[in-house]
Amino acid sequence: MSAPFIPPDIVLLTAPQLLGMMFNWGLWGILTVQVYLYYLFFNDSLRVRALVYTLYFLECVQTALSSADIIHWFSKGWGQLSFLSDPYVNPIDLPMMAGLIAMTVQLYFTWRIWILSASLPLAIFIGAISVAQCVAGFVAGIQALQVGDLTKLSSLLAPKLWLAGAAISDTLIAVAMCYFLYRARQRSLVPHTNYILKRIISLTIETNALSASVAIITLILFIRFPNNTLFICPPYALGKLYSNTLLVIFNNRMVLPNDNGKTASIGLKGLTAANHAHTSDHSSRIQDDGIKITVLRQTDGEPSDMDLDMESQRGVHTMTKRISLDAAPRR
């Protein structure tokens, strides 16, 4: 029996699928850690927690379906070239579920834009684009299942609309969020608030730019290389990027305590969350007499920005004081 013919460009059919699945698994592991940290340190409203855990559930389903694709292509279809171009359940776990996850995260950011800007038309416009890309993703998945060949999808319009809509929505969200956050930063006179807004602006630019770039790269590969599966690799990471983006924004509220070199590492117990009982720690070390004074203030709710600013200027708190003596004797 003669060996099956192997085309010279076989790597363009196998490598994108395998690498895309590796990115998918890796980002799912990162997302799992982020969700675990969120579970440990935050007790947000029911709606926010439902959003986080629903996204994680969808990502677990998407990862399971993607794993089924790899088993179908490289295990069940081992040595059979026809299996490499068979969509199997790929149209479900990529355009459909990735579009749904992207829409969920984008609508959350759209709601934040509405809160920041109080501009309902702008929020409706961005939300409409987000919903449209999700619908296009579902249509693209249905059409891919009907075609039955991953190398013959270049003539379809729906995948292009899905990827273009995701990129446009991410770009609009990044621009709008940065503009309104920057405007709020310009109006604020509190250094603590300015620092927080600056950090949120940086995160918004980095995360949304990354997801938009992946969508644009996928669109370019889909149009430029229609006869192979290069366009499959980037979108395997697209849904996970959206979910990780949201968890990065949420978990960014965690604060790491100062490490003076006394401990080798900071474990989970060394983390404090911003929505727990707030603790403001201001330390001053007097070198002459070896006295270290640590002043703590603990309140039930979130302190105002003005309170934080006054505390940093005065260094005096009225709730609790703790004084510890160093080894050096006091003169």
UniProtKB/TrEMBL annotation:
<feature type="transmembrane region" description="Helical">
    <location>
        <begin position="203"/>
        <end position="225"/>
    </location>
</feature>
<keyword id="KW-0472">Membrane</keyword>
<feature type="transmembrane region" description="Helical">
    <location>
        <begin position="53"/>
        <end position="74"/>
    </location>
</feature>
<feature type="transmembrane region" description="Helical">
    <location>
        <begin position="122"/>
        <end position="142"/>
    </location>
</feature>
<feature type="transmembrane region" description="Helical">
    <location>
        <begin position="162"/>
        <end position="182"/>
    </location>
</feature>
<keyword id="KW-0812">Transmembrane</keyword>
<protein>
    <recommendedName>
        <fullName>DUF6534 domain-containing protein</fullName>
    </recommendedName>
</protein>
<dbReference type="Pfam" id="PF20152">
    <property type="entry name" value="DUF6534"/>
</dbReference>
<dbReference type="InterPro" id="IPR045339">
    <property type="entry name" value="DUF6534"/>
</dbReference>
<keyword id="KW-1133">Transmembrane helix</keyword>
<feature type="transmembrane region" description="Helical">
    <location>
        <begin position="22"/>
        <end position="41"/>
    </location>
</feature>
<feature type="domain" description="DUF6534">
    <location>
        <begin position="166"/>
        <end position="254"/>
    </location>
</feature>
<feature type="transmembrane region" description="Helical">
    <location>
        <begin position="94"/>
        <end position="115"/>
    </location>
</feature>
